[in-house]
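re: ur question from yesterday

yeah so i grabbed the chain u mentioned. its 904 aa long if i counted rite. heres the sequnce exactly as i have it in my notes:
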Amino acid sequence: MGPVSEETKFVYDFTEGNKDLKDLLGGKGANLAEMTNLGLPVPPGFTITTEACKVYLDSGDEPAALRDEVTAHLDALEQRMGKKLGQADDPLLVSVRSGAKFSMPGMMDTVLNIGLSDKSVQGLAKQAGDDRFAWDSYRRLIQMFGKTVLGVDGDLFEEALEQAKVTKKVTVDTELEAADLKKLVTKFKKIVKTQAGRDFPQDPREQMDLAIHAVFDSWNTDRAKLYRRQERIPHDLGTAVNVCSMVFGNLGPDSGTGVAFTRDPASGHQGVYGDYLQNAQGEDVVAGIRNTVPLAELEKIDKKSYDQLMQIMETLENHYKDLCDIEFTIERGQLWMLQTRVGKRTAGAAFRIATQLVDQGLIDEAEALQRVSGAQLAQLMFPRFDDEAKVEQVGRGIAASPGAAVGKAVFDSYTAVKWSRSGEKVILVRRETNPDDLDGMIAAEGILTSRGGKTSHAAVVARGMGKTCVCGAEELEVDTKRRRMTVLGGHVVEEGDLISIDGSSGKVYLGEVPVVPSPVVEYFEGRMHAGAHDADELVEAVHRIMAFADRKRRLRVRANADNAEDALRARRFGAQGIGLCRTEHMFLGDRRELVERLILADTEAEREESLKELLPLQKQDFVELFSAMDGLPVTIRLLDPPLHEFLPDITELSVRVALAESRQEPHENELRLLQAVHRLHEQNPMLGLRGVRLGLVIPGLFTMQVRAIAEAAAERKSAKGDPRAEIMIPLVGTVQELEIVREEADQVIAEVQAATGTELKLAIGTMIELPRAALTAGQIAEAAEFFSFGTNDLTQTVWGFSRDDVEASFFTAYLEKGIFGVSPFETIDKDGVGSLVKLAAEAGRATRPDLKLGVCGEHGGDPESVHFFHEVGLDYVSCSPFRIPVARLEAGRAASQSVGSDHR
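ran it thru and got these structure tokens back, copy pasting raw so excuse formatting
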């Protein structure tokens, strides 16, 4: 941090700030100032800025000017209150509270009742007319100060408190009397002396200064750092410190404390929501020492304060134009506001409240979009397990694809398909999945693997299909040969046993856990109409928010879909085309034998024969796809993965050959396959013979696919359809590769046009998924009509990561150490990968101004990444069908981002 200017102001009175100064005053301080400015009853106080915290943390000492500023503000506070901090006869007491820009509940430190000492506790007792209250307040101060400021083990205080209750033969703190608490204070002071090596400070100003430093220090505690990493809060913000005069809700039946919400944070409904506790301090409510009463009961207990609170709540909601979360205290009939903030809410409440506020004229459509998020929409779309159900958790993995799935455990795809066709619901359990498992994955309710991460094969395919998936559940020992897995506690799950997996939490349960279906998905699939019945004012709210987003967004949203069924589902979900059709998925299943023959072909004639048999099958795939997406663009990626992925596993095949030889059975085909597997084996297949390289070294492979696309388009046109095919060449690293493939493709298209008499306009472009492609995008654009950024592979090649390996081996450590705030496979790495995307987009359009730009990696459905793609000027994002609504919403939010809107 640079030098602090002489004019820097480190302390603001509550009368000086406002809600827009959260960077400087933190959320709590900014909102206390805002309520003060509104004329609401806020106990006087002042805020020490985040800038002071940064200086303290950088230098190890507070800014030179801070002490004098604090003294001046404390003097002003004492004059206003008519008493001095910690004075013997009638002490002013203050709280010292943390207050970062973003709410970090419970992560940083707070000290209450500062100013109490052996002398002033007597004065407080006299003024309050309540000895017990005074000694309890002093006890709380020593306990909190000892733990927070002096680093004393908090358990020592708790043990002493428990012992005092045992001695008194009572069970709760409130049953201890003044004499008991006085003895406890003596004991607490001895604990401080022994553990901290010093006496509990009797000087009130020393108490306050030490507490301020402790709050600064708490910004960098392990728990605060971990919380910030999880919530993706920057580490360099620092915390403000709020010094506020104490008010007490535990001074008798005309006092109390409570929390209130201007709307129900669970449902979004308007009404009186909150809790109240008579004769109590705020921490008593949190500790659950006594049962609270509903906020509505306050009207009977203290109608004057209740009416005033209702008026204040209306004022705050109208002022903040949002649901407000309020903390308040009543001290002997006087209402005090201790905190307000924009309240956290459930996903459903967020959508309802946003539309309610539009209807009330408090916000417009653009602001309504800032009040919800794609993550909240995703929560609403997936079925969930019933929270009330009794469960037996037996493992936990990575929450790879949300949802709640129940079924019988099966350990191979064949069984999954067979049982599913018999009407059984199954969970496919594997160590990891591969393309061979696709049929089983489609048949299964969900997928569970003991290896892999969020972007493993299982995870990516599951998300594409909207399947629940838990990956990398390492505690589970999967034995596919014996068709069983061993779970926590040594319990064995046999094939056919019921299990339940939660793709939102990664948890795995024994038995069947009941699920609650999502009406939001039914709405997107057209099975429920907004406004059809009360079911769903939630559906109505989602419908309206999505309409807002679609009106605002510039980015178009396409789907990653490989067959007509997925394409139709994507279209129902609002897809405006297909951004990625992976043709390798069409080569699996019944066609595997044909593909094996192609790979094993020894002569050109054999290879041509195999391609000839594959051609009509490929053509029919594309006819169905163009029909489903009639009138919308369909981007088809030519074959991308290495050929060995279409052959049996080398170990499995070796065993089959060895067994056949031992039994003297015919095994010529298996032997040829094994030889091919060995021949095609690569040390690093991700960087080997795949993508455009396949098309260049295996004559006829890409031209067969191009011919199938062109003939399918011609057939659809003759049937009065409107096919809009785009041919995408994968893994291009140099323009020369693209030029060669393009020349062959153009020739094939011309031949099909001549043979069918149909004019075809097939755009030809490429995936940008290698750093060299991004760096030479200006050259590549000379031969490409569009770019689609394959950000999965681009992330791998930029970082030098093998995705499946690194997620399992060291990503957890990188996340814990703060090297990543989030996995770069989950949210795009703006500084590295994002820079290449931006550079390639600009260079490509400099060469070809009408170059169409999209993204088809997993990032296309990630909320934060969608905002980045909007900013760098891409035309569309493409994602799995179930993520389309999320991408549509986030594209709308990106286009209507309002300045200063901050709803974390």
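noticed a couple things. The first strand starts at residue 11 and ends at 13. also DSSP finds 36 helices and 31 strands in the chain.
anyway ttyl
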